[in-house]
Batch of 4 targets.
Target 1
Amino acid sequence: MDDYSSLRKQINGQFNLITQIFIASVIASGALLGYIIKLIADQSIITHSINETATSPITPFLMLIPLIIVLPSAYLISTLRKEIFQWAMYIKVFIEKDNEGYETHIYRFREKYSFTESLSPIAVSYFAFIVVCIVLFSYMFVQSEMYFYGLNLLWLIVPVIFLVLFVLWYFDYKDIPLKCSKEYEKKWRIIKGENTNPPSCQT
């Protein structure tokens, strides 16, 4: 029972850490985006006052800077969640064993209903923020007349890279509950000597 309490405390601590990372990343990236917009607005007032209309070619890329906070935070959250399911399956295999406890019941629920987190608040919030940044980038791209600076529309590859990284994260993140539950159970049963199939889920 001491092992169970210790592991549940560790799992709860991981959940709290995920929440803190998510909140901190949203606040920090949102504040940074707001500050960048304010700087651009102030600069726009100055340029208009001296009859300059072209926006700096660097301006669109400033809109993507907050994503440097968002994407690493998202990948860190995924890593922490995988660790949660690693220890949850340890509880199921070594502590609950044949006695159906919390982890066993929640595992069967996910297995029966193919539970994923397609509409997770974390995924939805990050996606919305990324879309806002890319839309602002596109707007500033047009305003700055970047298509006159040599590489034409190839500059649009930059936001696409961020979007691809998010999509890769999203498909991994939404399948963590079901996929890692199964794969980490295999891992622990191998260690326990009950299963010889190697696990494929990595942290």
Target 2
Amino acid sequence: MRRSPRTPALLPLLSLLSAVSCAEPAPPTFPDKGPITPRSSGAAERASVAITVYNGGFGVVREVRDVKLAEGRVALELRDVSAGIRPETVHIRPLGDPNSFRVLEQNFRYDLLGPEKLLEKYVGRKVRVYRWNEAKGQDEAKEAEVLAVDKGVVLRIDNEITFGFPGRIAFPEVPANLVSRPTLVWLLASRAPRERIEVSYMSTGLGWEVDYVLVVNENDTRGDLLGWVTLSNTSGASYEDAQLKLVAGNVNRVQRESRDIAGADAEMAPPPPPSPPQFREEGFFEYHLYTLQRPTTLLDKEQKQVSLLEGHDAAVKKKLVLRGYENYFRYGLGLEVPPKQKVGVYLEIENSEKNHLGIPLPRGVVRVYKADKSGAKQFIGEDRIDHTPRDEKITVKMGESFDVVGERKQTDFNALGQCQSESAWEISVRNHKDGRERVEVEEPASGDWTIVESSLPARKKDAHTFTFDVDVPARGETKVTYRVRVRWC
């Protein structure tokens, strides 16, 4: 085969084209010198905002804004941000061209404009002072120099040093380093006249808690459980039409100083019937995430309530419990044991789908109500519950029984050694109601324990507790006697 005479001449050209096609594109260049163009963005430029609020009184804010930039160096002020922002958590990125700008510096300005701050910035500078002249019926103006403001305003007027000036002070301008509201400022090296940006940051001043309302029926056997989320915003910023998510769980954080979040106490009356639950729940890492199914507005210095759940006709179990004390078995107490003891009242609810519930319940306060004979709902007790997964039990302490009382006495005591004893007890449970009641007598005993004898069967609740189930007739009394041997060392 005859080779074309032009083939060798094409080889260098093909090699050059191949090298050019395989070469990586040159990285973009960003202008980092020259004059700085000021730009600002307020809440009006928000395209969207999303907030995730955590149990610990903080939140994560994500904003999307359409901002005006310029080619060259740009000082972009992001206004209407939280006063509780943690600047080290701020992240900004372009959503259009990823190479539209580069962040050179980030500043968080929180030196807020106010009378005291304004005077501090004018120490050593000239201002004008005005004092009302009664005779002339007008203000008289003089030039003054601010000398000090630490423990009162000291001025130099007409070559005299004075303080406690009885007039008003006028300033020629606002110093550049004072801002009316907390502001994020970036120094950008920009290649675009306009860009859509996403900004995210953590902030204090955002919190949420849950309040539950349980309404029990006449027999204390069933009830309706309603859950309300109370959102609080003291961050210094308002968020309109925000996508809201709540995280329930114990999220670990590095401890640092933070401001307290103010919040009002919940009302001691049931709220109006809620609308159907508005949150979608899902598992999230080792926590639970609740997403509000519609946008909502969180104004600064505002509390908002949104319904979380609504469960009807859940089975409720009421328990009466008489508890003893661990040290009772170690000593010969005699008359030192309080003769009459209160009987605690508890409600138990299974958080299961079978019981018309079955969603993970965030930590909160359960307030319980019951209708009296006239039909009016009355408050009968409250308790705080911890984060409760589905298929776990909720226990609410209601208070102490009025008509069921207990009384105990030590009838015998023998020390069997330095750390061992045997004692005998008599517990009387009296019921002044018109119906029968069952009381669980719960006796804590540390160390090794053995029931020597008892008038009712003893049940081992755990390694350190035994119980008796005591049925007490209407307007009657039941006594429990037992002897126990305990070794605690």
Target 3
Amino acid sequence: MTDQQTTPAPDFISPKDAEAPATSAKAYRLATRPWFKKKRFILPLALILLIVIIQVANGIGDTGTSDTAKSGSQPAVTSALQAQAVAAAIGTKVRDGKLEFVVTGVEHPGKTFTGKLGKTLTAQGEFVIIRVNATNIGNEAENLDCSCQLLLTDKGQKFEPSSSVLLTKDALKFVELIDPGDTVKGAAVLFDVAPGTKIANIELHDSPFSPGVKVKLS
């Protein structure tokens, strides 16, 4: 009996199997495509670019408006600063916060002068007394007792009130509370300065946190 040799039948390839390599290749190309070419990135990038363009355009417009506003307000600001820089004269009413002041005079008692109960007060340098009327224009009691009352020299030096002010005959006027609408007259604000100091202004405040107002003393 003779063996019959069987010829292998050719492999059958289905259409699906034929498409598999092409699909794999396409998937590989998509996977290896640069990130900025992928659809999920294109839309967000376009949106960000649009927002940036809008902001830049608005910024240019706002700059023009802002410059115009600054230009228009500059004269008013300059005038206000100039007004503040000019100190009022003795006898002129000036206001800071809830107090209205009138400086009525300047006294130079020298090295010593007599305080309350006949006590002699002695300066380290020499005393200067600024006489002040103060009116309360607010709704709460106020007083002059504050280290923020400053004496200014022609060289820009600043002096706070001397602690000896509490020993003067008018000490009560410096520390007493002034009711709304009331006025304390002739209060003595006492300073101890170096001999020969040339005083220029006094800067009066209703509190340590107020801007203060200057009165020219010479």
Target 4
Amino acid sequence: MPNPWDVGSAIYLEHVGFKALATTSAGFAFSRGLQDSAVPRDPMLDHIREISAATSLPVNADFQTGYADEPEGVAANVKRCVATGVAGLSIEDRSGNSAAPLYEFDLAVNRIKAARAAIDASGIPVVLTARCEAWLVAQPHPLRVATERLVAFAEAGADCLYAPGVSEPEEIEAIVKAVAPKPVNILVSRFNSDLTVSRLTDLGVRRISVGSALACVAWNGFMKAAQSIAQTGLFDSLNGAAVSREIDELFGKRP
């Protein structure tokens, strides 16, 4: 389930045969010249709606913290997100407070319960993914923390469980077993790119996403080419670029 950061990348990912997509909060933020998590709620909802409308594939929304701390606010914003046409959305437990980077346990669980209730009230079968950010915030003993929270999130009504940052096969397998039979999403990035679809499948993983990785690959090519032109006055960094005519033809096929 790769992560486009704009309409064009969403269209291309459908074109090459993927069966589902997910938005990336960081990838979209970078395209706006902002840091991850700096895009306000309403522009993010507009972006999620735009991606959902651009493709016939199911789209999962990276809805970050639900743009609220308290469960009531999460529920209200999840209702707004469901209305964008997404097939799924994720809620994370990162608090944004450096002194306590994860929401307190009971609050984190109640936030997932609120999201579940909001989805159920909508009558639309949107998939709820609950995320534990233990690895991303460098929480001590991340496996223990993530496992405890993901099990609780599953019991609170999450359909899919996700601990971005976990990469050791034995830890992935432990999470899969802890929340079974509910599915687990694994993030693959530059830091664990040695993992493969077949290896993750063998570990019991049911869903794979790449977060901002594709956007960062695109940024890497752009940055290197721009730096080369600025520093050398040469344009050989443009060799191997995608052919604009082929991209134009792809988009021209759309109704």
